[in-house]
Every structure is written in C-alpha cells, then in structure tokens.
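Pipeline run #58 for the internal structure catalog. This entry was flagged by the ingest filter as a single-chain record with no existing model, so it goes straight to prediction. Upstream metadata was stripped on purpose; only the residue string is passed forward. Reviewer on rotation: M.T. Logging verbosity set to normal.
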Amino acid sequence: MPESTSALPDNMQNVVEALVPAEVRGINGHQVLVAVITLVVCLVMIRVLMSILNKFLRHSKIEKTLHGFIRSVARVLLYFLTALIVASSLGVDVTSLVALFSVVGLALSLALQGTLSNLAGGIMLLMTKPFLVGDFVEIGGHSGTVLEINLVYTKLNTLDNKRVSIPNSEVSSGRVVNYSTEGNRRVDLTVSASYDAPVDAVKAALVDAVAAQGERILEEPAPFIRLQGYGDHAIEYVVRIWCKNEDYWPVYYDLLEEIKRSFDRKGIEMTYPHLNVHMMQP
C-alpha cells in the first residue's frame, strides 16, 4: 500500500509534464504580473482602436452593410494579437501557436470554400457598387428590383412578385445589367405591316401613336421611326423613343396598344405568316 501511494505523485507529475509545455511550467509570479498588466493595456488599446474605427466608418463612404463585417474582422485580429503578446510575455513560444492557427485557418477555408467565395463576392459588390438597393437589374437570367445586398446573397423581387436569392459569387462573376443607373431609357419596338400598305402611311400611323403618349416622350433624343427590313410576309418598321426611367413600362405597353388603334383607323393591315397556294388547271 505505501508503494502505491508514493507512486501516485510520480504518475501525476508525468501527466503534467506530458500535457503542459516546459515554458508554462516555468512561469513565475513576476511573469504573471507582467502578463496581467500587458493584458489590461492591450484591452484598453483595443477599446481605443475600435472607437477610432467606428468613427472612421461613420464618416466614410463604405457601404453600411460592410461596417459590421469590418468591425468583426478587426476585433478578431486585435484579440488574436493580444493573445500572442500576452503569451510572449509569459515566456511561451508563440511560433507554435501561429502555426496551429494557420493549420486551423487552412482547414476552415477548405471546408467553407463556397461560403468564402460568396463572402468575397459580397465584399466586391459592396465596394464596387454595380447596383444599389431599389435598382431594377438583370442578373444571371433573373430580372427584378434589388431588395437586399448582404455578404452572401443578393435578393431580387421579380415582376411577378417572386423572391430570388442569388449567391454573390455568381453575381460578381456574371453579367449584370442595371436599368436604373441612368435617368432616361429608350423604348424599342419592331412593328410589321402589309406590303400593300404605303410606307408613308405606315410611318404616319406610327408618328400618331407616338404623339398620343404626350409629354412622357422626350423631345431629345427625337423619336426614330424608319423602315427596318423586308420579311417573308411583311415589312418591318422600327420605333425608338426615349422616356424617363420610371415611365418605361407604362409607355411601352401604352404605345403597343396605340399602334394597333392607329393602324386600324388608317386601314393598315398587320400581317401574319401565311401561305398562298395557286391551283393550276392541266
């Protein structure tokens, strides 16, 4: 029995030596005091630096969505540096800690590769600002009004009131068409008329349809109405007019309806594909 009790401290000592590095076992009271003072100073400096960063963000033109992300990254880096400084003041070799965090960071980056790609795309969008909340855009075959731009997804509200969330990695690497950046927008229409209808009569009917839109049509650039081409069954005419961005869709649909009314008033036929068969007697 005495032999087993005397062996217990030796076993415990072996366990401690295996788990606790030699640098930590050799820490004395003076080093602990220095480490505590260093920790307090570092925490005070973190508060000061974060306060300066907050003031900078409030007065900067950086997108507000990025403010929280920047604060979080800065806070993590400062606390990491604080841990290294305090460990160094205790006499601990920080090289192994840096290597450990590097391995952990690499593993996390591989595991979260898709999320990090979306995050990088979100930061790119918020910095370059190809569109803003409220703009009408076309992204990856989806058209709609931008509802939200966060660090992972861009959310659109389509014309038929559907919510579309597009990963930022696709948005930043794809083609983006923004219809809201300019104040004016052009309405392009292609209209077909019968070969039997005189060209001047068709153009006059189109001019009347454009004039019926009133002040919504801009005088400059002037409306453009010309014959565009000869099809198999009809002559094609092009109509190009400019209007305010917010008037685009009302003008687009109203002009379509007015063209049909104007053609009917002037007796102009809007032909459709057909086939004429001529029967010949033997």
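catalog note: Confidence is low (pLDDT under 50) at residues 1-8.
catalog note: The radius of gyration is 36 Å.
status: ready for reviewer M.T.
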